[in-house]
Specification:
Two copies of one chain form a homodimer. With 375 residues, chain A is of the alpha+beta class. Chain A has two domains: 137 residues, Creatinase/prolidase N-terminal domain (Creatine Amidinohydrolase, Chain A, domain 1), CATH 3.40.350.10; 216 residues, Creatine Amidinohydrolase (Alpha-Beta Complex), CATH 3.90.230.10. Chain A is built from ten helices and 18 strands. In chain A, the strands form six sheets. A six-stranded mixed sheet of chain A has the order 4-3-2-1-5-6, sandwiched between helices. Chain A has a three-stranded antiparallel sheet with strand order 7-8-11, with helices on one face. A three-stranded antiparallel sheet of chain A has the order 14-17-18. In chain A, strand 9 and strand 10 form a beta hairpin. The longest helix of chain A has 22 residues.
């Protein structure tokens, strides 16, 4: 749980940002924005649960059954509840009157369901609507020291499990992707992680050529390149790293060249990171290596994504993003090459922009060999 | 994966419903609606991935890296992709022109993120917007035989694990809630389930008084009432059942009376179910028992929720819902009493409305005793 003093200072900064921009209110729904501002965490749900933040005040609208949990998790003292036999839009109207909002601009959570934005539009027909990220992105994109510590520990846990799994070597042959994924997830939990950052990816042979293949019942064969992309959360912050390994046997010649090219692109991307650098320069550095080595066509995604309470968040490391990197930004550098029907290779670390360069959060071996030294 | 013939017939019914109501298009985002109509399944994501359905056509707008996966999962042949170096709103505009939409009424997925509804509103400024449930709820609320079979099997798996866990008896004393939850989840997987329906609830002693407490590091003590609420998915459909048990030792007198009252309310709720009955009559039947026995104040939520691809979906069994029940509707009957600081009791089965009454999907023992016969 986030310390109340931390969420209070975040709320204060959000209120200041609203006041500066002459915005009436920010309305969060269960999401990372809500967790960031209040400390209360839950899955998105079909019941009306909102945090209203105005330049002066903050209050929850919540189902009665969440009352105690919200009060325990959050320093926001004003919690207004509705019960399952009441129409929650009545409470929205009353809150709108009380806060004096509905004539100006309201920001809704970027991940709020249409079900609820429709209700808010009906309740506040004279308001205009924008997205919470208009003010929260600037707050969230630079991580503070406590956030960085959580991200470092999440990365350490993932690295440790990555090394343990690679040590399976020949013992992994004949295991299914799903069995390997289960091993990974058990070990992440045992190592102190809390749940997975995203559904674990184990892509063996041709399945590795699908960047978002999860895992299935295909058995690992000798010589198979296997994409292992996973992470766990520590104090709410996720790990996310990828290695591509061959557990046993000899991979094909083409794989050797592709892996070498992806590794070179990965290092080139990381080396390009620093304060004042545009995000797209990092993408360019990695992409250029793969283009020069003849694999540009196989690199079908961006080079990276920001990581924080959301495992995919700004800054996105794309060929078009000219945003300048700043100290405290955390993102992945994960070039990959995908050869449909054959195999895929992806190598991913998380990095943090520092005052004078870059810090890698991951340091497990990047070689495709199961048990050799670090590259 | 849903059979292509099934999704094709669902798509056809959706297109007919759009035509009947003079609607221009239905726009789904990764959600149960998208899975229901196309067979393609993924988590909500920050990239633009939509299924457009008009009275005549259906097409995907998707990130390039999802192209193969969508084609494999779905019978929809028209898949238009954008790559990470392109602006996806350009593709939205082109698709809008091609489909000839943007002057009439568009329905967006109920769970579409505000991030994307804002984009659609900007792309189609002359359109009016509604929710996908306006047409899809009527299709999804009555389950077909294949859906019912999946729900029955998911219920059987949950029942089996419930009985295995209750057989722990005294061995559960001293285990933490989190350890019990891990045992439950491993066994659900071993019994053929695929992932949990929702985060497993193990609420011991006072934690059971929070209906949405998940699990923590509190150890189970002798005499503790423990709320066990969990389920797993089978062919995409979730189980969801609750039992409240005392693993060892003697519970307090008050618990005995509360458990007896909740069980009576549970049975009264189930007995009220049948075709043509209003949803609120089921709520009333359960609520009345608890009120008469002096526990009305402690029953702080609705009696149940529909269950299908979403674990919470219509019909909701509340005191206000006058919707008539129809054969094929599936929902929970789960009265509970919550005594803050002391304990909670909830007893939940899933039921399906039949042509002449009700079928229970769960039949594991409802007694609080760990190993005795069925009630």
């Amino acid at each position: 749980m986030t310390a109340p003093s931390v969420t209070e200072s975040r709320l204060e900064r959000a209120r200041d940002a609203l006041a500066e921009r002459d915005l009436e209110a920010l309305i969060c729904f269960p999401s990372s924005n809500l967790t960031y501002l209040s400390g209360f965490e839950d899955e998105p749900m079909e019941r009306h649960l909102f945090l209203f933040v105005t330049p002066e005040r903050a209050l929850f609208v919540a189902p009665e059954m969440y009352d105690h949990q919200i009060r325990e998790a959050s320093p926001v003292e004003d919690v207004r509840t509705w019960s399952d036999d009441e129409d929650p839009t009545r409470l929205l109207e009353a809150v709108g009157d009380d806060l004096g909002i509905g004539e100006g601009r309201l920001l809704v959570d970027d991940r709020m369901w249409a079900l609820f934005t429709q209700d808010l539009r009906a309740t506040f027909p004279d308001a205009t609507f924008g997205l919470a990220s208009e003010v929260l992105e600037a707050l969230r994109i630079r991580k503070d020291e406590a956030e960085l510590e959580a991200l470092r520990e999440a990365a350490r846990i993932s690295d440790r499990v990555s090394e343990e799994i690679r040590a399976f070597g020949p013992a992994a042959i004949g295991m299914t992707e799903a069995e390997l994924a289960a091993e990974i997830e058990t070990r992440l939990e045992d190592a102190g992680g809390a749940g997975v950052s995203f559904e674990t990816v184990v892509g063996g042979g041709p399945n590795g050529a699908r960047p978002h293949h999860r895992h299935g019942d295909r058995e690992i064969e000798p010589g198979d390149p296997v994409v292992l992309d996973f992470g766990t959360r520590y104090e709410g912050y996720p790990g996310d790293q990828t290695r591509t390994v061959v557990f046993d046997g000899e991979p094909c010649e083409r794989f050797l060249d592709v892996h070498d090219a992806v590794l070179e692109a990965h290092h080139a991307g990381v080396e390009a990171v620093g304060p004042g650098v545009e995000a797209r320069e990092v993408d360019r550095a990695a992409r250029q290596v793969l283009e020069e080595r003849g694999y540009g066509e196989g690199f079908i995604h961006r080079t990276g994504h920001g990581v924080g309470l959301d495992v995919h968040e700004p800054p996105y490391i794309t060929s078009e993003n000219d945003r300048e990197l700043e100290p405290g930004m955390v993102f992945s550098v994960e070039p990959g090459v995908y050869l449909e029907g054959a195999f895929g290779v992806r190598i991913e670390d998380l990095v943090v922009v520092t005052d004078d360069g870059v810090e890698r959060l991951n340091d497990s071996p990047r070689t495709w060999r199961p048990l050799e030294g670090r590259e």
